[in-house]
Design goal:
The complex is a heterodimer. By secondary structure, chain A is mainly beta. Chain A is built from 1 helix and 7 strands. Chain B is mainly α.
Chain lengths: ~130, ~525
Amino acid sequence: MQATGKDLMVSIGEYPLHQQDGENLFHGKRLIYLCWENHLMFAAPLCVPLPPTLPFGALIRDVLPELYGEHPEFEDIDWKRTQWFNSDTRFIPDVGKSLEHHGLAHKSLIRFRTPALEGSRASAGEGKQAF
Amino acid sequence: MDTRVVKKKLGLKERYAAMTRGLHWDTTYQPMDKVFPYDKYEGIKIHDWDKWEDPFRLTMDAYWKYQAEKEKKLYAVIEAFAQSHGELGVTDARYINALKLFIQGVTPLEYYAHRGFAHAGRQFTGAGARVAAQMQAVDELRHFQTETHAISHYNKYYNGMHNANHWFDNVWYLSVPKSFFEDAYSGGPFEFLTAVSFSFEYVLTNLLFVPFMSGAAHNGDLSTVTFGFSAQSDESRHMTLGIECIKFMLEQDPGNVPIVQRWMDKWFWRGYRLLTLVAMMQDYMLPKRVMSWKEAWEMYAESNGGALFADLARYGIRKPKGWDDACEGKDHISHQAWATFYQYGHAAAFHTWIPSKDELDWLSSKYPDTFQRHYRARLEHWGEQAEGKEGRWYNQILPMLCQVCQVPTLFTEPGDATEIALRETTYHGMKYHFCSDHCKEIFEHEPKKYVQAWIPVHQIYQGSCYPDEINPASPGDSPVREVIRYYGINGGEDNGEFSSSEDRQHFRQWSGRMKPQGHGE
């Protein structure tokens, strides 16, 4: 997705491009953001540095429990039914293949939905919704 | 024999003219445009600086006299406050956390405002605008000092205030106010005045000062109240400067209207995002509540701000683009922010807690459409956890931050409070993420500016925020703990759970209020 807004930048002199946060600064890792949809016990998506070679299976097995294991619904997740998105684009992961292979570049956002586990969309009784 | 020449004493008006515009001259050795390069490049066209109406007729000598009087009174009160152990007279030690947020996140902005106005006070071609900006620069410096002095008394007794300057430059949530002001004062002088004098001081300032100052009054904090009064007369001058500058730009050239509108869109939204911290303070951190954030928003933004933009419609100005989303947010942002600080309460420099049952009921009654439905169960769950054998939960994984406002991307989609709002774009091969359409648009208008942002979470992972002996490639089993150490925050003393804090214990001990009553006193 390219920037669509009009660049209206003005400056008094030269304004060189200086991008912070290049992948080379993260000690062989890249930043990956994760968002478990509708699970608002976690206030915001999480940001973790991960090796690009990390197999997707290891992400599920080793990384996600550390990130989301505290949630009461976590242990009930059926990973086979989980829907994965690279930002808004759905993809079917291959657990043996790396993040790189899945096109998860530096600063990519993985959103995942767990259809049976609705988090903040489920009722917790007394007019309250869960988290 | 010399005849003594009797100088005619100047009248008030002449004196004012002599002491302000009379100090100006047009340069001849160098062209004026070279001496004042900054007030042209933003694209604002000024045809006649003489049309600038001075927002307040105050000369520098009168200013000194007037401020010195106020200063004397203020320091007398601060002194009396210290003598009578005012630090123990507040409603509850939880209240002190609002002051911590103030000294950490608001006071440094006074200093930034000082720098910004000093710059604007040099760069405008028009002498009237220069004098007004210079005077405000002095005001802001004074506010920084008086706030520091007023709050320094609390620093002797409570944790979480001792290292505020260093925190401001490093700590993740303080990058929100810091980046706001750096964005403003790295703009040109007209954008700076639109950002700070208009959007912040004129449109939003009541939402900052009323919660803090009324909060102080309701919670027995006289020194902060007195500081507030001392600053208030300055603030009204600052607001007048804001509206004068806007009207001046709009009247000078029709080509200025779209530029000013874009700045209003931008700075309304940036200011609104910054106020998320205040919303949270108002609803959660004041033991004795003044009004809800929602009520304050309705009174000061929707009603007063609505009238203002109706008035500006004759210039072709409409409400800022983010207005409707901001109005919807009044039901949500304080709860979303407190949940964030609660779970990252080990990485901040103040205490957090779960509100008592009465307080939860108060929130349910003030937010009938949202609190009970979306936010209550989560807090109750955490409360039970904290009381039980699991203990209090802290989120050990750092959050994603918005590239523009630098707030964690904690806000939900307009119209759907169950889903986090996320936006992104790609610029020169790199992805950038935002909390909202409005922050994304701000980025897209000036991408080169925002790709430089010092995003605290990314800096932590790069290794910029660890003590020297820590290897950033493998920071050990608790990177957050090392970061806190680098920040100079004393983990557990300056932050974490309130009910088991030293602050609470000391307050109860020193004030003789030993009887436990739940989380409050």
